[in-house]
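Q: Joint fold for the lines below.
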Amino acid sequence: MYSEKVMDHFQNPRNVGEIENASGVGTVGNAKCGDIMRIYLDIDENDIIRDCKFKTFGCGAAVATSSMATELVKGKSIQEALQVTNKAVMEALDGLPPVKVHCSLLAEEAIHAALWDYAEKHGIKIEGLEKPKSDIHEDEEEEEEY
Amino acid sequence: MDRFVYLDNAATTKTSPTVLEAMLPYFSELYGNASSIYSIGVESKEAITQSREMIASTLGAKPEEIYFTAGGTEADNWALKATAEAYGGKGKHIITSKIEHHAILHTCANLEKCGYEVTYIDVDENGVIKLEELKKAIRPDTILISVMFANNEIGTIQPIRAIGELAAQHGILFHTDAVQAYGQLPINVDELHIDMLSSSAHKVNGPKGIGFLYIRKGVKIRSFIHGGAQERKRRAGTENVPAIVGYGQAAKEAFSSMQERTAGERELRDYLIDRMEKEIPFTRLNGDRKNRLPNNANFSFQFIEGESLLIMLDMEGICASSGSACTSGSLDPSHVLLAIGLPHEIAHGSLRLTLGADTTKEDIDYVVEKTKGIVERLRSMSPLYEDFLKKCQKR
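A: Joint structure:
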C-alpha cells in the first residue's frame, strides 16, 4: 500500500520532537478525523529555518508526510518554505495512496500554520501566506470519494 | 522477522489441515456434478447431504433447513431482502441494531431506498442491545428483527434468547447474523427462537467462499438466485462441493472441540486483557467483560492512532486489526466503537486481537511486550499526549 520511502519515513521519522521556545508552532487537523500534526520552527534573524520538529497523531502516511515536510523546509528561507506544497511532499515520498492525499495537505498546512504563528509573534507579514484553516478536513471530504 | 503471531481470527482463519484433506478428493477424482446420475455425481450429492446433516445437527435444526451460500454476506443479504419481498404485503418495517456488520447495515440501507423502514436500536456502553428500546420499536407492520449473535469487533454477545422470545410473541421473524458466534458458542435454533441464521466457513477454520443460511421450515422466503433446482430451488447454481465438504468437516471439528478449545482461548484472552490493562497506561477494554466471544479482546490506547499501531505490529510479525478510520478508507472510525459511546479520538486508537486454537501463552507474552513498546513510541510522537502531559504538569 505504501511506497518504500513512506515506510522509511514512518519507521524512522526525521525530526520528531519539540523545540523549546520555538519561533513558531502550528497545529492542524483534528482528532475526530484521526490526524493531528504539530510543527515547530526555529527561525534565525535572516529568516532561515534553522531547525524544524514535529509531533503527529495519525496513520502511517500522516507520520511520513510530517517527517518529509520537516526535511524539506529545514535550512530553507521562509519564502522557500512557502513553496513546499503538498505535491512536493508527495513527490518526495514517491507518491501516496489516493485516500492518503489529505495527509500531505495537512503537512503543507502545518508548515503554513507554524509560519503564521511566527509572523504573528513578530508582528510581521509574510508575502503570500494566508491564515491557515484550523481544520482542513471541512471542505476536503468530497475529494476522499474517488 | 523472527516470529509470526496471527491474532486476527475474527477476520479469517487458517483452513485446518484435516479440512483441506477432506476437500481435496472433490477437486481431483470426485469432481462430479451433484445433479448427475452417474456414480461420481452421486458421490458428490452424498457428500453434500452428509455435510448438510452435520451442520444441521450442530444447531438442532433439520437438514432441509440448511441452505448453502457463497458466504455470510450472501446469507445476510438473502435473509433480509427475501423476507422483505415475501412479507412486504404484511408490513414494511424492519428492526436491527446499530452495531451490525455492514452486510446487514448496507442491505438495510438498500431496503430503505426501496420503501422499507428500518429502526436501528442503540446499544449500551458494553455493546449490548437495549431490549426496552427494541420492545418499544415493535409495530404492527414489523416483519423482521435482525440482531447479530455476537459482534465482530468488540465480541459482545447479544441476549439472543430474549430477542427470539420477543419476536415469537409478536409473530415477527427473527434473523441472527451468527458469523462470529457459530463454532464459538453453543446454538440451538429452537431454544433461542431463531427463524434464520447466517454463518460462514472461513471463520471456523473452513474454506473461504462458503456459508449457509438456516431457514426455519415454514418461513416463506423467496429464492435468492434463480436457475436450477439446487438447494430446494431456493439458491440455484452448481454446488461448490469441495467447499461444502470442507464446511461440514470444519463444523464437525469446531463443535467437537468447542468446550476445550474455547476454555483455553478464554484463559489466554483473560491473561492478555489483564496484562494489557495493567502494563499499558491509559488503556481501556472495549466490549462486555463477561458476555464476550471467548477469543476476542479489543482495546483502545489513548493518544495514538490505530493504523500506525497496526503497521508497527506487522513489522514485528503480528497480525491484528483496528477500528481506526484509516483502516477502513473513510474518515470516520468504526461505527461499533462510536455506538458504544467512545469519542472519535479514542475510537481511532483501537486494537482488536482475536485468538485461535493454536495461540500460545508465548504468543500473548510476545504481543504484549511489542505492543507496550510501540504504544510508548507512538505516544512519544503524539501531540495529544504532549498536551495531556503539559496539562498534568500545570495541575
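Q: Anything notable?
A: DSSP finds five helices and three strands in chain A. The longest strand of chain A covers residues 35-43.
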